[in-house]
């Protein structure tokens, strides 16, 4: 029986051993090590590696032997790291003679560093020893071995600059070199030794380029450009292009070039996930919404996993990475910003509400403030380049939204004056460490929140102009050193907003001074290393305001020159957000010029670009053209059917309707429209509205024949017209005043003199004919100043203008 059992046992199938299934981490993370690109190995890199090892041994000793040299002081370490950083980041490969001269200059006879380096290089050059990438374990562990006396060797400058620290640039560079070296084959190692010997024995600069075998700097058969051949340089290239795409797109690489490099980085250096962010920015500029959102999602997915710092948890679960909640909070904000730029307000609002809710659950005050700032931006600015009241358009229903007053209270916070003020905020999120960068971000968000509230009060017509920016309007954000230029950006936005509000209130001379001051300080960098100029949307707005101020004061050639400069600085293919302001500005100013020249067919083509940016601006100018063409009923119907939520736009519509009715001799209707405009202006703080209403009322009374009543109104307006009136507004006022003065028996020459001084023949020739007609009326036989000689001269001048510029002056429609 026992024999049968033994036989059965022998021929029995093997016992299945149950093993615990562990996840294949290499497969999960895409075989990171096999596709890792380390630091390409060149003779210069090998020499730097030897120099770092000699410096480490000079400071701590060799293995168990204590160093015979005094340890480096903090000042000496700082100087050493500066030399190493210069050598590592150099873009050009040096010859051995040049490298040796640099080492001699840097260390000379200090602790025999130069002699030890030359000895190591000569051993390699003579073939006595090969390239050795070995380095002491103490470099990684921070625990230095004991010498024979039992005393542990420590760093006397503990707590200062570390040779082996995760924050050390040299330490990270060494790890990349060793990662690349660990993957070399025997054949590649032979080539490295041969390359190093040739570099040491040959001193010609022409031979340096021939000392880099392609197999050492390749990965999967692809030779990468030097700018992205290592993760460090790839991150630097990505960071540089992201910086310039936001600051000065003309300094960034071309979009196609960036996309090609980004694809290479994503394929060969998957750890540089910032490349997806750069790709999203490029797709936004190319107006490819789907690709931009897709790249943004991939960026946050890749950044969602972080290394597991809990070693006990790692041993138990074998989870090398753990998910992070930060992308769940911040990803919707950036995706919502893309949706807002392209007009998808519903999706943007849903994403922002999700982000705010996640921030509330996580207790992240910065994310919460950022989400609320974006929500206010969505409601107040939307995606349009023109500031209009869009409350009724963006907030379709109140039941799904928090009350407006409560929403505003979220954005009103105690403005930070110092980094110590952060203690007054509830800040416990993962990105809310009390650091200088965090203080700058919170201060920036607070400033943007204040500016959004200013914009809201401006569009509602309740904002009062204040000139002390820093103390009253919060349009500046003083951050001291401001390495990330946050305070500069806030200040630029403040200048742009302030100049736009000046244009809105008729302060054209002040706007010209403000914009000129801002643009004169934004100089292009002439030499490498200098601070480059900003070509952001705030400067596009400021440039447009400068052009508007030129046009409003009658300097149209200067306005057109400013527009041409804007086209160069803000091209459509590089920054369409800024180019919108160039398009709008050119359409508005050229329409004004063409209308004064009676070129109505050209005016129709000029206002077409305005339709997609502002229905209000397009309709007002379209109605003006229709009225000038004799289609008054169609123009009035178009204006009445226009839906306007903006109080400033409503006032402008009433004024335009009043002008149309005046030209039709419908004076009662014109009076009604002016009364409505005056009623709306009573609840606002606009400085120029009453002046515009008063001038149109005086023109209406003049056209009606009530010259005495018109003259009474005119007497009250000269000071405000000079302060708030544009070039066209002043021309219409002076002509109204001149005609009313003549019809009431007063001397009209002071008003006509002002009109003649405005050089109307080159700018508004039909108005010049109206002025000549008024002068002729003075010198006729039954005029106030009969003079046949002067009358003949005026008639000849009128005929010359009529010959060059036929047609009537439609000044009653303005």
Q: Beta-strand level of the residues, as a percent range? A: under 5%
- Within the largest sheet, what's the order of strands? 1-2
Secondary-structure content class: mainly alpha
User: Which of globular, elongated, flat, extended, rod-shaped describes the shape?
Assistant: elongated
Mean pLDDT: 79
Q: How many H/I helices?
A: 39
Low-pLDDT stretches: 16-22, 144-148, 203-221, 395-407, 409-434, 467-473
End-to-end Cα distance: 121 Å
Taking the sheet with the most strands, its summary is: 2 strands, antiparallel
Question: Can you count the beta strands?
Answer: 6
Rg is 37 Å
* Count of all domains: 6
- Helical coverage, percent range: 55-70%
Main traits of this protein?
6 domains, mainly alpha, 814 residues, cell division, two-stranded antiparallel sheet, mitosis, 61% helix, 2% strand, Anaphase-promoting complex subunit 5, ubl conjugation pathway
In a few lines, what is going on in this structure?
With 814 residues, this protein is an all-alpha fold. 61% of the residues lie in helices and 2% in strands.
Strands, helices and their partners?
Elements: H1 2-11, H2 25-28, H3 43-60, E1 61-62, E2 65-66, H4 74-88, H5 96-107, H6 113-125, H7 138-141, H8 169-181, H9 186-201, E3 218-219, E4 222-223, H10 231-247, H11 255-268, H12 274-285, H13 289-302, E5 305-307, H14 311-317, E6 321-323, H15 326-341, H16 345-362, H17 365-380, H18 391-394, H19 404-411, H20 436-459, H21 469-473, H22 486-504, H23 508-520, H24 537-552, H25 556-569, H26 576-596, H27 600-607, H28 615-628, H29 632-640, H30 647-663, H31 667-681, H32 689-704, H33 707-715, H34 718-724, H35 727-743, H36 749-756, H37 760-763, H38 765-779, H39 788-804
Antiparallel strand pairs: 1-2, 3-4, 5-6
Helix pairs in contact: 3-6, 6-9, 10-12, 11-12, 12-13, 13-15, 15-16, 15-17, 16-17, 17-19, 17-20, 20-22, 22-23, 22-24, 23-24, 24-25, 24-26, 25-26, 26-27, 27-28, 28-29, 28-30, 29-30, 30-31, 30-32, 31-32, 32-33, 32-35, 33-35, 35-36, 35-38, 36-38, 38-39
């Amino acid at each position: 029986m026992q024999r049968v059992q033994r036989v059965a046992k022998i021929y029995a199938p093997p016992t299945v051993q149950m093993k615990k299934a562990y996840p294949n981490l290499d497969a999960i993370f895409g075989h990171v090590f096999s596709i890792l690109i380390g630091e390409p190995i060149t003779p210069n890199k090998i020499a730097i590696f030897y120099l770092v090892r000699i410096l480490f041994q000079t400071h701590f000793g060799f293995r168990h032997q204590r160093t015979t040299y005094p340890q480096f002081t903090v000042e000496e370490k700082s100087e050493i790291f500066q030399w190493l950083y210069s050598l590592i980041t150099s873009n050009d490969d040096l010859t051995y003679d040049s490298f040796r001269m640099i080492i001699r200059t840097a260390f000379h006879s200090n602790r025999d560093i130069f002699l030890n380096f030359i000895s190591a290089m000569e051993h390699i050059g003579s073939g006595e020893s090969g390239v050795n990438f070995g380095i002491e374990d103490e470099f990684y562990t921070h625990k230095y071995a004991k010498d024979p006396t039992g005393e542990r060797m420590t760093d006397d400058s503990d707590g200062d600059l570390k040779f082996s620290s995760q924050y050390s640039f040299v330490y990270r560079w060494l790890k990349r070199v060793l990662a690349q070296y660990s993957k070399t084959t025997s054949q590649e190692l032979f080539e490295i030794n041969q390359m190093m010997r040739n570099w040491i024995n040959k001193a010609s600069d022409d031979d340096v380029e021939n000392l880099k075998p392609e197999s050492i700097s390749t990965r999967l058969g692809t030779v990468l450009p030097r700018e992205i051949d290592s993760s460090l340089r790839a991150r630097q290239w990505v960071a540089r292009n992201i910086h310039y795409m936001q600051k000065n797109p003309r300094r960034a690489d071309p979009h196609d070039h960036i996309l090609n490099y980004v694809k290479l980085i994503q394929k060969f250096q998957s750890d540089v996930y910032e490349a997806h962010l750069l790709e999203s920015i490029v797709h936004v500029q190319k107006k490819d919404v789907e690709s931009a959102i897709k790249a943004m999602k991939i960026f946050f997915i890749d950044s969602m996993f972080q290394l597991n710092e809990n070693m006990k948890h790692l041993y138990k679960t074998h989870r090398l990475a753990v998910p992070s909640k930060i992308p769940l909070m911040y990803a919707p904000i950036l995706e919502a910003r893309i949706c807002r730029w392209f007009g998808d307000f519903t999706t943007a609002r849903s994403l922002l509400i999700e982000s705010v809710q996640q921030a509330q659950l996580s207790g992240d005050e910065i994310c919460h403030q950022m989400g609320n700032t974006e929500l206010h931006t969505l409601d107040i600015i939307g995606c349009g380049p023109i500031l209009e009241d869009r409350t009724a358009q963006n907030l379709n229903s109140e039941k799904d939204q928090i009350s407006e007053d409560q929403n505003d209270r979220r954005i009103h916070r105690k403005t930070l004056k110092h980094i110590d003020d952060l203690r007054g905020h509830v800040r416990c999120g993962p990105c809310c460490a009390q650091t200088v960068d965090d203080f700058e971000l919170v201060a920036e968000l607070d400033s943007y929140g204040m500016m959004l509230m200013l914009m809201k009060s401006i569009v509602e017509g309740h904002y009062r102009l204040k000139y002390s920016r820093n103390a009253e309007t919060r349009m500046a954000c003083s951050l001291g050193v401001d390495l990330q230029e946050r305070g500069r950006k806030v200040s630029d936005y403040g200048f742009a907003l302030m100049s736009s509000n000046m244009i809105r209130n008729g302060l054209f001379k002040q706007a010209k001074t403000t914009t000129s001051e801002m643009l004169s300080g934004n100089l292009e960098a002439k030499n490498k290393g200098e601070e480059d100029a900003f070509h952001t949307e705030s400067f596009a707005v400021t440039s447009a305001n400068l052009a508007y101020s030129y046009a409003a004061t009658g300097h149209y050639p200067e306005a057109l020159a400013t527009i041409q400069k804007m086209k160069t600085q803000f091209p459509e293919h590089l920054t369409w957000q800024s180019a919108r302001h160039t398009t709008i500005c050119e359409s508005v100013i050229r329409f004004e010029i063409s209308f004064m020249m009676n070129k109505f067919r050209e005016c129709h083509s000029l206002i077409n670009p305005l339709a997609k940016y502002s229905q209000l601006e397009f309709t007002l100018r379209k109605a003006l053209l229709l009225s000038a063409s004799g289609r008054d009923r169609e123009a009035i119907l178009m204006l009445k059917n226009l839906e306007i939520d903006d109080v400033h736009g409503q006032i402008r519509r009433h004024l335009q309707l009043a002008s149309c009715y005046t030209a039709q001799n419908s004076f009662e209707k014109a009076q009604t429209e002016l009364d409505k405009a005056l009623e709306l202006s009573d609840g606002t703080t606009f400085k120029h509205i009453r002046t515009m209403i008063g001038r149109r009322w005086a023109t209406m009374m003049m056209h009606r024949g009530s010259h005495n009543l018109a003259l009474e109104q005119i007497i009250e307006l000269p000071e405000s017209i000079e302060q708030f009136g544009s070039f066209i507004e002043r021309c219409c006022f002076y002509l109204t005043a001149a005609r009313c003065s003549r019809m009431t028996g007063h001397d009209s020459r002071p008003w006509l003199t002002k009109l003649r001084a405005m050089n109307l023949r080159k700018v508004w020739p039909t108005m010049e004919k109206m002025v000549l007609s008024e002068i002729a009326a003075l010198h006729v036989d039954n005029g106030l100043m009969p003079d046949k000689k002067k009358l003949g001269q005026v008639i000849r001048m009128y005929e010359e203008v009529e010959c060059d510029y036929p047609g009537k002056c439609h000044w009653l429609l303005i």
